[in-house]
Design brief:
By secondary structure, this protein is mainly beta. The chain has one helix and eight strands. 4% of the residues lie in helices and 42% in strands.
């Protein structure tokens, strides 16, 4: 008898219906700094929270060097304990300090699927890099 093992893929609905594997991180960003966060698996959802500081925290899916800020392709958090939750599949997210004066702190929580990041396509185009 042969066993067929299920391998989750990018379009596997079940991978997004079950509870995700928890993943947590956080840090402080100096003025004008940007950090790229790479997840070990494709995400089901991401929550980013500005914590313990005031400032201007930006969440985006492409580095600031690849986008025009005229398009505002980022979500801004500008007060302590403000957060955003996004039900998205991705393998990378960028967080930057849009404040020119103060450092700012953040916390990030992600629900991860069992999908290998090699299966995730590149996020580009309108709303990401344009």
């Amino acid at each position: 008898m042969a066993w067929n093992y299920y391998n989750p893929g990018i379009g596997a609905v079940g991978s997004y219906q079950v509870s995700g594997h928890p993943w947590l991180s956080g840090s402080s960003l100096l003025q004008g700094a940007e950090v790229q966060i790479e997840f070990p698996f494709v995400t089901k959802s991401i929550t980013v929270k500005q914590s313990g500081s005031t400032g201007l925290l930006r969440v985006h899916f492409a580095p600031t060097s690849s986008t025009s800020h005229a398009f505002r392709n980022y979500w801004e958090l500008n007060s302590e304990d403000e957060s955003v939750t996004m039900n998205v599949k991705c393998k990378t997210v960028y967080i930057s300090n849009g404040n020119q004066v103060h450092p700012t702190q953040y916390q990030i929580f992600a629900e991860l699927t069992g999908i290998d990041t090699k299966m995730m396509y590149a996020l580009t185009g309108s709303g990401i890099t344009e």
